[in-house]
Specification:
Blueprint: H1 3-17, E1 29-34, H2 38-51, E2 58-61, E3 68-69, H3 71-90, E4 91-99, E5 105-115, E6 119-123, E7 129-130, E8 153-154, H4 155-159, E9 175-176, E10 196-200, H5 205-221, E11 226-230, H6 240-255, E12 259-263, E13 278-283, E14 300-308, H7 325-330, E15 336-339, H8 351-360, H9 365-371, E16 375-376, E17 380-383, H10 395-404, H11 410-423, H12 428-437, H13 445-457, H14 461-472, H15 478-494, H16 498-511, H17 518-532, H18 541-547
Helix pairs in contact: 1-11, 2-5, 6-8, 8-9, 11-12, 12-13, 13-14, 14-15, 15-16, 16-17
């Protein structure tokens, strides 16, 4: 069985799944910064340089330095000055007939007929949240459900409906996003009522600036790593959609060849769970960052998307320990989303749709984020480079480029070959043969671990042990090393190789003294030592002689 045959299968499969698209262009982006904050201007300039945004499409407005602003301050310092610039320089407005469902004209509305831009990138220092205004009362509120009679909002989400300004829509409550679930990226445009607003932001200006660097690196070298999905198995029908979205996203990642790890327990992944080489993470429902994401170092890969569904996941972007959006960005995620006020579950992004658009339909991050939102003028903020497209290069071309450059990341492309073929019915024996034939497996901790997993699934524990032991000698990442030690210990125990298992656990504690699960490892080690009895080195010399 030749590698070329398997790679051919990969090329054909993903050519269908990821249609070619025109590269996203900086000319489609309008960049906005806070001129009262030098760091904000610096982030804007850096992004414009990296993405080739024309100089005339970088605008500064003197804004509050606070993350939260009143409705009046938002309107007077950002919304209206920005709208004036858009209508003067970037949009052509005109009157258009609005038809009913039968195609009959029912009214004339002023709308955006042409637009030079599709995206708005807000830079570090632009306010995040619009505070509620108790003095603002609108007639439309009387017909709204009580929970929607509120006018607070995310700045991003409110700006996203600027193209609809002349329709005099209510400020209270959410507005239906008629582009939700679209598979036609071109439909996401101001001419269709949606301005895609994301922000280059985070706890520090350096983190904000780095979002474009990591996005462009992933576009060049690929989005690689493992995908983690953490749902809850909730019984409440009102909460079930959250689980369904994450399950759908996990199925999509598996379909596309990601090494996919799931947790269906009420508790989130614990800190002791060795979450290594993260390309994609979705989870819910904890108020503040927890589990593996509280460790000093989190193994996010370049281009990684990470999101935790919670009503206040982005209540601030400045904290590295509170809520989720800020900490995830501080730990190395390239893109995230979150809510700045209570949105209710139906007002949060549909994660199944988002994942499908980003990874399957080859949308940009901005396009995927806005295709996944059922409502706008509401609570969601979108953080990351709007032009980021993980599938910028077709997989076959990317594989060839990585091999030509002897880039170690090609190991992940081979792993994708295995996972894709498995999802299409290839046998364990065929995939084991594939990994054993390609030379890189003997130099790759990633592929050697996968070989061990396949051998274990095939009922060959001794072969699995050999593969894991080899992987440990091939410079695995710190969290991968912990996982390998834990897995190897279980395999050795199953083979009744207790002395080797004990030595393995001792090595784990030596290599990773700060491991969050070390207490359970120590208990297991003590149990093993009790079964093995005193070691030969501990046996008194006289006893040793008499035993002979």
């Amino acid at each position: 069985m030749k590698m070329a045959w398997w790679f051919s299968g990969l090329a054909v499969g993903l050519a269908v799944l990821r249609p070619p698209v025109a590269p996203a262009s900086g000319s489609e982006v309008l960049v906005v910064f806070n001129s009262a904050l030098p760091e904000s201007k610096a982030v804007a300039a850096y992004y414009a340089e990296r993405r080739g945004v024309p100089a005339g499409q970088v605008l500064g407005f003197e804004l509050s330095r606070e993350e939260s602003v009143s409705r009046a301050e938002y309107r007077d310092t950002l919304e209206q000055p920005l709208l004036k610039e858009l209508e003067a320089r970037f949009w052509r407005l005109g009157d258009a007939e609005i038809a009913d469902t039968n195609g009959r004209p029912v009214k004339i509305e002023r709308k955006v007929l042409e637009s030079k831009i599709r995206y708005l990138a807000l830079c570090y220092g632009v306010p995040l949240r619009i505070l509620p205004d108790s003095n603002l009362k609108e007639p439309a509120e009387d017909t709204m459900r009580p929970e929607f009679r509120r006018n607070e909002a995310a700045v991003d989400s409110e700006l996203a409906v600027l193209p609809l300004t002349h329709q005099k829509l209510p400020l209270a409550g959410p507005l239906r996003n008629h582009t939700y679930t679209t598979t036609n990226a071109a439909w996401l445009s101001p001419t269709n009522g949606v301005l895609m607003v994301t922000r280059l932001d985070g706890p520090t200006p350096e983190i904000a600036r780095g979002l474009v660097d990591k996005a462009m690196q992933a576009e060049t070298e690929g989005l690689w790593g493992r995908a983690y999905f953490d749902w809850r198995n909730v019984a409440d029908p009102a909460m079930k959609p959250g689980d369904d979205w994450i399950r759908t996203a996990a199925d999509m990642a598996r379909l596309l060849g990601f090494e996919t790890i799931t947790n269906d327990q009420e508790a989130t992944f614990p800190a002791s769970f060795p979450m290594s080489q993260i390309a994609y993470y979705l989870g819910w429902y904890r108020q503040h960052v927890d589990g593996p994401f509280t460790l000093p170092n989190v193994e996010f890969m370049p281009g990684a998307f990470a999101y935790h569904l919670h009503s206040f996941s982005a209540a601030t972007l400045r904290s590295t320990s509170n809520h989720w959006a800020g900490p995830l960005l501080a730990k190395g995620a390239t893109a995230t989303m979150g809510c700045v006020h209570e949105p209710y579950l139906g007002g949060t992004p549909d994660l199944g749709v988002f994942t499908a658009r980003l990874l399957f339909h080859n949308f940009t991050f901005g396009e995927a984020a806005y295709a996944s939102q059922n409502v706008l003028s509401w609570m969601t903020t979108v953080v990351g480079d709007p032009l980021y497209r993980p599938g910028a290069k077709p997989p076959p071309r990317l594989h060839i480029e990585l091999e030509a450059k002897q880039n170690k990341l090609v190991e992940w492309s081979h792993l994708r070959v295995v996972n894709l073929n498995q999802s299409r019915g290839a046998s364990l024996a065929e995939m084991i043969s594939y990994l054993e034939q390609i030379p890189i497996t003997k130099q790759s901790a990633v592929l050697s671990e996968k070989l061990g997993d396949l051998c274990a699934a095939q009922g060959k524990p001794a072969s699995a042990v050999h593969a894991y032991e080899r992987a440990l000698k091939l410079d695995p990442s710190p969290q991968q090393r912990i996982r390998l030690r834990l897995t190897l210990g279980e395999r050795l125990l199953a083979l009744n190789r207790h002395a080797e298992a004990a030595a393995n656990y001792e090595k784990l504690l030596e290599e990773s003294p700060d491991y969050a699960g070390k207490d359970s490892v120590q208990v297991k080690l003590q149990e093993l030592k009790g079964k093995l009895g005193p070691s030969p080195e501990a046996t008194p010399a006289g006893e040793a002689r008499s035993a002979r």
